[in-house]
Amino acid sequence: MNSTIQKMVACIFVTAVFLAASATAGVQTKLPAPDLRYRVEVVSVASGVEWRVALKMTGSAAGLTELELPAKWASRDDLEKGILDFQVAGENVVVEEISDIDDTIKLRRIHHKPGTALAIQYRVIRIGNSDPESQKDAYSPVLNASYFQVIGHGAWVVPRIERNKRLNIAIDWALPAGWSIANSFGVGKTSQAFNTSLQNFRHALYLAGDFRIRSFKVRNQPVYLAIRGDWGFFDENLADLTQRIFQMERDFWNDHSQPFFLVSVIPVGRPLDGPNIGGTALENAFAMFPAPRTQIKDLRHLLTHELLHNWNPARLGGSKEPEQLLYWWSEGVTDFYTQRLLLRSGLNSPEEFASAYSKLMKEYAQSKARNLPNQKIETDFWKDAEVGKLPYQRGMLFATVLDQSLREASNGKASLDDVMRDIFAAAKKPGAKPMDAALLNAAIAKRLGRSYAYEMNRYIENGETIELNDTALGPCFEKKMLAFRAYELGFDIEVTIARRKVAGVVPGSAAYEAGLRDGMTANGWSVFRGDTTRNVEMNVVDGETRKTIKFLPVSKAEIVTPQFYLRTGLDQKVLQNCGR
């Protein structure tokens, strides 16, 4: 929706466009002299903008300081390409480019006079598209002529010390005139000082430019929305939805302690792309990457899921490394609560809740990765799309079975809610350890009255298929066994998008039978990935002919799997408690 015609509803949220010199938001107190002082000048270049970074710090008393450069984070393994002209000045400085320890760390060893002042300079440039066309693009620094959005893993050079050690950090921003600014440590201030760990400093969101910044409060704690692009909804509609979700989740955890939070929304993809939504949780923030045609109803799940990461795993103690082995809990159990909380709050209907489980069962039934061991998730999560989905599917189903077991064993007096809150309470205590399988089993056993290690080993570690029984979703829902045809796109969508040429069409597939052929020029597409109910539309050029090819992306073979439905004849009181 064009921002110039948007109505401002003061009772719902406060509109605030913070220019470079405006007052700060967020918690910033007067701190001692910074351990690290950054100056970031945002400079216009032919490709958009770039960062020119100057870092001042004191070298170690031993005369040897190691610096970590951006290297790998999430699906990006090329972040070092965005760091140019790295140099260090100081007394007796010698820079040694040592071999990389592993593919996640790029090191520079600085020899210098003990305790001398070090001045580090470098540039941060764009390595993806200036307008991101995929979530992978958004994971690298997005440096557009009119804005930037940067996740710290792709920009900050930091000393190599214990990542959870807290430091005093200062940043001075030199921005183009009229740019608004917001990040994980405040809004609207071009000079910032804060105390945080290097891990949180890097795992943070930084943005500035032509964002429309909105704010609202939940129990007097401010939450900010930084939005850019035109959408099929008003900014205030998104602010209202976000406020309801924040209230819902903080009430669930009984935790209103966070004094500041930032949510960003930027369009990711081409205007003709079908709805495709991504996002990531960060320090005091999360970033959303919806496709341009996304509707507000499609954002409910992403908002709820990503905000839940503020607790799971962050405030439950974090995940013991390697964290991928616990993705079934941090992602899958989070998906379980995403559906439960949306139902409990009324943001989703019981029918939508049942439909979400039915979709999950279909995807799980046809997954080629379904029975892989948990160890495979550590190695292949970012390499194989099917493996990437597995911890979400496995964890949500496991949580459903576990919740049912807890309710039955306690005659309805306990549920997975109690286990989650127990872990949260324990994580607040001094000396709390990060989550691992043993800690989770102990928390479950406290409420269940017995160990759950056998089930965890069977279904999580070994990857046996998880089945849901007839009453798994509670008395409001019934299960039916139905046959369906699996999702089968019938061509290679990734290569097609990258080359703008249709590739990998499978003979005999629905795509092939509809007339799609390798080599056609792909001008636009609408693909609802994993959805067998909506047509794929491909706008292609075949020789001199422009055409739109439509087909339902399904296989010829049928699969039988459970599907869930709301029972008929339920009265309103029962319906109101379906998600409890």
Report what the structure shows.
The chain is built from 14 helices and 26 strands. The protein is an alpha+beta fold and 580 residues long. It folds into three domains: 3-265, Immunoglobulin-like (Sandwich), CATH 2.60.40; 313-475, Neutral Protease, domain 2 (Orthogonal Bundle), CATH 1.10.390; 489-552, Pdz3 Domain (Roll), CATH 2.30.42.10. Strands 1-17-18-19-21-20 form a six-stranded mixed beta sheet, covered by helices on one side. Strands 5-8-3-2-12-15 form a six-stranded mixed beta sheet. Helix 3 links the parallel strand 18 and strand 19. It is globular and about 75 Å long.
Please work out how many helical segments DSSP would assign. 14
Oligomer kind: single chain
Describe the main β-sheet briefly.
6 strands, mixed
CATH architectural type of the largest domain: Sandwich
CATH topology group of the largest domain: Immunoglobulin-like
Mean model confidence by pLDDT: 91
How far the N terminus sits from the C terminus, by CA atoms, comes to 36 Å
Q: Order of strands side by side in the largest beta sheet?
A: 1-17-18-19-21-20
Secondary structure: helix percent: 25-40%
What is the strand content? 25-35%
Number of strands: 26
CATH top level of the largest domain is Mainly Beta
Shape: globular
Q: Rg from C-alpha positions?
A: 25 Å
Number of domains: 3
Structural class comes to alpha+beta
Uncertain stretches: 1-24
Features:
single chain; about 575 residues; alpha+beta; Immunoglobulin-like; Neutral Protease, domain 2; Pdz3 Domain; 3 domains; six-stranded mixed beta sheet; about 25% helix; disordered N terminus
